[in-house]
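Before relying on records like the one below, remember that each one covers exactly one chain. Contacts with other chains, cofactors or solvent are not represented anywhere in the record.
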Amino acid sequence: MKINNLILIILAMFVFLAGGVILIFAMFSEANENLKNGIIFSSIFSIIMFVVLFIVEKKLLLKEYKTKQELDNKQQELDITNYTDKLTSLSNRNKFFQDLPKAKGIILIDLDDFSILNTIYSKEFGDEFLQKLASKLLGSKCIDNLYRMGGDEFAFISKTEEDLKSIAKCLLNVIDRFYIVKDNIMIQITATISVTYSKPFIETADLALKYGKKNKLNLVVFSNNLDMFEQNKTFMDVTMRLKKALKTDNVVPFFQCIKDKNENTIKYEALMRIKEGDKFILPAVFLEIAKKTKIYPELTIQMVKKTFEYMKDKDIPFSFNLSYDDIINKRIYDFIFDLIDKFEKKENIIVELLETEGVHNFAYVKNFIDELHKRGVKISIDDFGSGYSNFVYLEKLNIDIVKIDGSIVSNILSSENAEFLVRTMVEFCKKNGISSVAEFVSHREIFMALRELGVDEYQGFYFCKPKEKI
């Protein structure tokens, strides 16, 4: 209550009491009639003034209360605006940092290649997808709070000493590896969840998140092994080994057979290896680091050159991989077409485009494919289902072969979702005259299940491992 209002109330009470005392005195005094009437009139007037003052004060108090209520409502609305994400109605980034001091640990969730949704379809389509995902996560009962950090990134704050790793695994199970938005559209959500009890939370979790995305890991727990010194040490070590391999001509192709449904070998895929003494190093060890250096184009050129040299006298189709970075590199582009133009049996050449690579110039890629088709070269999409997979993409680029990602194939016996994805892809391919190839076929039970679903061709250790000679 304000000071002015308090004074007004005291004044009103004083007037009321004074009027009452005077009135009583007048009624029982022996003063003449005119004086008595004057005193009574003054007393009644004082009482009336009290009533008036009381009513005025009540109205002032009511007005003050309404004003305070309005201010509280406005502040509440402002808080909602400042701390709530408009799209998902979740707490936003501002609220996250407000609550962060209370955190015992955090989880960051990031979606891979989500921007492709907005690019190929529409922002509205992407927004609807995020709303459904937010609802799915929050309704999972794995967590009791969720923040949208912006774009396709979400966060969870733990305010107690609970098992964050178990919560993260619970969320991964809810999200699953694939999320079907609608018929004939397949979106992958490889959620990289970073857990940390190490302060500062946001820095360590973000470092773990980047490490997970770089190494295609679903769950990363921060540790000192992720510090920048160790990463730089590995980077320098791998870079020096790659330079040595190029200098000593030790970039070599290995070949893995591809079978038909009757288990006949019908083609081979060329796979890059680095030879070090008696050992051969797989791309998983060096490829991501190579892409960050000027070494990567040299690796591609040596690999493709040796593949063509080896296959020139063999009358069997063969494929080799190219990334988006390869085909936009003019030197590699010209080198590839020069080799193709000089190759006698062009119908045996298959170019596999890596589906996981981000495509920023769709028209350029389509023109590249059209030029290959003019020469009789077939086009394959590798690892279909591992990134921004969608069937519109296949139609627009006029693809000849689709290779189903190994992560789907590996789960075909245990996951209804994986089985549904394979069936959907196979049906689409058959309707559009596209050959389907299943990768990572590791044993006969998987092969039989895939054959039952109508897959055309098969590749994996069940049939043969990659080897230097065929």
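The radius of gyration is 37 Å.
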